[in-house]
Structure formats: C-alpha cells, structure tokens
Amino acid sequence: MTALLEARGLRVEYGATVALDAIDLALAAGSRTAVMGPSGSGKSSLVHALAGIVPLSAGEVWLEGGRLDTLSEARRSRARLARMGMVFQFGDLVPELTLVENVMLPLQVLGTRAATARRRAVEVLEQVGVAEVADRRIGAVSGGQAQRAAVARALAHRPAIVLADEPTGALDTVSSEQVMDALTRLSVDQGTALVVVTHDHRVAAHLDDVVVVRDGRISVGIPA
Ligand SMILES: Nc1ncnc2c1ncn2[C@@H]1O[C@H](COP(=O)(O)OP(=O)(O)OP(=O)(O)O)[C@@H](O)[C@H]1O
Ligand SMILES: [Mg+2]
User: Fold this and answer.
1) Residue 198 CB less than 6 A away from ligand 1
2) Does the C-beta of 47 come closer than 6 Å to ligand 1?
3) Do the domain assignments include residue 15?
4) Which ranges constitute the DSSP H helices of the chain?
5) Is Cytoplasm there in the keyword field (predicted)?
6) Per residue in 84-128, pLDDT tens?
7) Mutate which of 13, 17, 168, 198 for ligand 1 pocket (most atoms within 8 A of beta carbon)
8) What residues make up the domain containing 94?
C-alpha cells in the first residue's frame, strides 16, 4: 500500500548539530504511531521534518505520493494546512483570540463558512473537554486547557495526518485520556495517520506502533 506520508533517508542539521540521520519511516492511512526517546534525541525534529517545516540536509519526504520537501514554501504550507493537523510542543495558538476562534482559524483559511467553522470548533472543543472555556481568550486559560485547544485545532478539519508533539505533556491522566480518545477516534473514523510524540507509556498504549529515536536515529526496540 502507498504510504500517506513517507520519509526516506532523512537528515536534519542545525549548524554543526546533526539532529536526525538516515531516517526511513512510512505511515499508512489509519496507522497510529508513538514516537518516544530521550530529550534531545530528535523527536521534534522528526515531526517538523515530516511536516516540511525544517529544511533537509539529505533525504526526501513524500506526501500522498508526491514530494513535499521540494515544493515551494507556499505550496508546502498549503499542503500542510489542508492535509495535516499539527500540535506543536511549545504551542502556537493566538493568545488574543478565544479558544473557539483559534480552532476556527484554519477552517476559515480553508474556505469553511464562519457558522459551520464555529459549529465544528465547538464540537472538537467538547471532545477534548474544554467546551466550558470555549469563549475565553487563550491568554486567560490554563496551560492544559490551551494544549487541549491546540489538539482541537489540529483535528477540526479532519486531516489525513495528525502530527502531535507531546500533546498531553501538560495534562493530568483524565484530560490526557480524553485527548487520546479524540485523536484515536478521528483515526479510526477517517483513517487518519496519527503520530504522537510522548514520554508517557499510558499515551503510547493508545497507539499501535512505537518508534524510538536515539541520537537522531530510529532505533527499533522497546523504549527505555
Ligand atoms: N533550532 C535549533 N538550533 C540548533 N539546535 C537545535 C535546534 N532545535 C533542536 N536542536 C538540537 O537538535 C537535537 C534534537 O532536538 P529535538 O528538539 O528534535 O529533540 P527532542 O527529542 O524533541 O527533545 P525533547 O524531548 O526535549 O523535546 C538536540 O541536540 C537539540 O539541541
Ligand atoms: Mg521535542
């Protein structure tokens, strides 16, 4: 089967630091993958490389049968917006906007009418358990509530692929389960390929495959 998203021989360098090397990874529709490994091993770099956000020193990224890494910046952004849902480790919500407005934003950029976007935004905010603060500004909610809004935003347009970098890092067990349920439900219902970076074995237990990154390489085996 053709992979939805595939990395071939990926290498990422930041100056003299080799963050990733010789990464081969193929993600099929409906696959659910945990990315684990020590701090600084290259997990965020891997997610950003798969999303076409960081430039590659070597290798290729293929999205739905076409090269992603060689597209222009504008086309890469468009492909990411339309086909992927991203949850960033350090958040990138707009603090001045409400939770609902943040979740509506990508839907509206993709051409969804405001009323429809709002309805969908409220629905996904409910799924991750923050509907009661939906109309508060991001700047006026807790870190965990903001993190759940970031997950809701990544799910809202029902993307083909979700790349989530420690989406439960700031969450208690109950909220964490809620987020993982929302992510896996989307994957089961829509065949979304799910990639979740996590240090938490309870989070990884929701997923089917585990990839362990060590010193910038994928090491097969049971995570430490
Ligand atoms: N913008 C950057 N400039 C220089 N070096 C970087 C940059 N981003 C990451 N690195 C380095 O690349 C390596 C991989 O970093 P990365 O952020 O991918 O690790 P990680 O596995 O996500 O870690 P963590 O679990 O702490 O989030 C590390 O050595 C890190 O210091
Ligand atoms: Mg990281």
Assistant:
1) no
2) no
3) yes
4) 43-50, 73-83, 99-109, 114-127, 143-155, 173-190, 201-204
5) no
6) 999 998 889 999 999 999 999 999 999 999 999 999 999 999 999
7) 17
8) 5-219
